[in-house]
Amino acid sequence: MKLENKKIGRNFFSLIWTGVRRNYDNLDNLDDHIAKRLSDESQDNPVEIHLSRMFSEVFQRHTKDEADRLFIVGTRSTTPSLRKVSSRPVKPWFFSRIFFVLAVSFAMLMLLLFLFKSNKAIPGLIFIGSLAVPFSLMMMFFEINVYQNISVLQVLTTFLVGGILSLLVTMTFYLMLPIRTDVSIESALVVGFVEELAKCVVVILFINSYRLNYIFNGVLIGAAVGAGFSVFESSGYISQYGLMTIFTRSFQAIGTHTIWAAIMGGAIILGKARKKPFTMRDFFTKPKFYIFFLIAVALHTFWDWDIPNTGLNVSIMQEVLDIIIGWFLIYIMIDAGLREVKTLQGQRIIIPKKHRLKKGRSEKNRSKKR
């Protein structure tokens, strides 16, 4: 009986895994299907991008020289010409090393606090705990920016100044709007709209100031502003509600402000005329922008909303669903960014062989049904 139950259990999980794997593989097609609708160029052929391999370099060995080359970018002498920009699928890896260093630092500070009872470790715990995930995500987008036209100094300036400035803009908006302290959908909507609008305004300021014109540029600047916002906001919450808050806030940062602002940064580039600044008119007249802006507001609202008469399990499911949708939109931006590189370079966009086979089979099936 036990053997039969184990066999049934294995078959059940095998069936689930097969379905998950099939749907995950199809994600490569689904995000490209959406991304090519964002392009003003050819609508027929997908960019060759394999999301399942995006993080394949994380666990590979890399030399110090490879890491150094990632940071020697963004200057007049180190920014490559458009012809030399890589249009291959992006495979960031160094961000995982940054996260590892920050995680080890956090663990060491925890030892100082709990093993040696040193309260002097608390400020460090608050800062490193708030910094680890958002900063690592920001550096991932720094790696993904294949144009290499934004320096480390610009990224850090955007992270610090942009993060604080977005909080100042948020507080200014709060003074003008009535914000209630309840957990209703209306209150969550107001908070989501105010905070995303504040970040959006700051991202636009930096994109216009740096005169950026590429989708990957917008995603990076958005991520930098969102990461700064996340770090300083989390530090405030931890100081107010206690150290235990640091664990939930750190986990949640994988799918909140950094991701939402990165989506808006890419949308700002999609919504403006090339080599021209983003204007107030673009804000209201470009569907490619305001649709993504409204989606970011909706994701923030859904995250903050406590559904009445539900418990912790529903709240966790809300957050997981929010993270999945947010990262799917990030994949769309990455896909659209690679499509943009190939279009600007005048390259022919090639359909991967396995996608051609799938497409041929689906067309044959449709013809048989007819």
From TrEMBL:
<feature type="transmembrane region" description="Helical">
    <location>
        <begin position="252"/>
        <end position="271"/>
    </location>
</feature>
<feature type="transmembrane region" description="Helical">
    <location>
        <begin position="122"/>
        <end position="142"/>
    </location>
</feature>
<feature type="transmembrane region" description="Helical">
    <location>
        <begin position="283"/>
        <end position="303"/>
    </location>
</feature>
<keyword id="KW-1133">Transmembrane helix</keyword>
<feature type="transmembrane region" description="Helical">
    <location>
        <begin position="94"/>
        <end position="116"/>
    </location>
</feature>
<keyword id="KW-0378">Hydrolase</keyword>
<dbReference type="GO" id="GO:0008237">
    <property type="term" value="F:metallopeptidase activity"/>
</dbReference>
<dbReference type="InterPro" id="IPR026898">
    <property type="entry name" value="PrsW"/>
</dbReference>
<dbReference type="Pfam" id="PF13367">
    <property type="entry name" value="PrsW-protease"/>
</dbReference>
<protein>
    <submittedName>
        <fullName>PrsW family intramembrane metalloprotease</fullName>
    </submittedName>
</protein>
<keyword id="KW-0482">Metalloprotease</keyword>
<keyword id="KW-0812">Transmembrane</keyword>
<feature type="transmembrane region" description="Helical">
    <location>
        <begin position="188"/>
        <end position="207"/>
    </location>
</feature>
<feature type="transmembrane region" description="Helical">
    <location>
        <begin position="154"/>
        <end position="176"/>
    </location>
</feature>
<keyword id="KW-0472">Membrane</keyword>
<feature type="transmembrane region" description="Helical">
    <location>
        <begin position="315"/>
        <end position="334"/>
    </location>
</feature>
<feature type="transmembrane region" description="Helical">
    <location>
        <begin position="214"/>
        <end position="232"/>
    </location>
</feature>
<keyword id="KW-0645">Protease</keyword>
